[in-house]
Amino acid sequence: MLHRLLLIACVIGCLVPARALHAQQAPRVSVALPDTTVAPDALGSTVLLPVHITERLDGAEYPYSQGSLSIEGIISFDLVVTYDPAHLRLTGVVQDDTFTEGWMVAINDRADGELRVSGTSTGDPLAGPAGPLIFLMADVLGGGRSAVTFTTMRFNDGTADATAGHVRVGQ
Description:
Blueprint (H helix, E strand, L loop, with lengths): L1 H23 L3 E5 L3 E3 L7 E11 L19 E7 L5 E7 L9 E5 L5 E7 L9 E11 L3 E12 L2 E3 L3 E6 L2
Parallel strand pairs: 2-11
Antiparallel strand pairs: 1-3, 3-8, 4-7, 4-9, 5-8, 6-7, 9-10, 9-11
């Protein structure tokens, strides 16, 4: 009887740390629009703002985390970006040299200060581990600083949390 109890205690003791390690090492997908500074002479021109996707394995919390989803499992995305239309006008996306190159992507820029982007794979899912998801095309309209906020960020059918990045025109 004592041997059985010791065996059960050993098995439970070995499994608990393995489960905890697995939970800490579950892949997490995060998306970020880095803070960007645009030169003052860019007024009236179009700039590209990178939207980066990263797979993290350290179990930490990130602003755009999507559960235990792996980049390799992503076959679609939806995002809604808001911004200050006094400083910027987001007009579309560029997919060249991104994870979504070759995907079908649709945009809706009908609302002032908002851009909606949806994309779906025409073949294989994304291939990670990190890099640009898309580039947002932004017409620079005025000087100052504009928050660029992901109000919606979804991969497949799951919703991710979102926080703002900033675009600064000038120093």
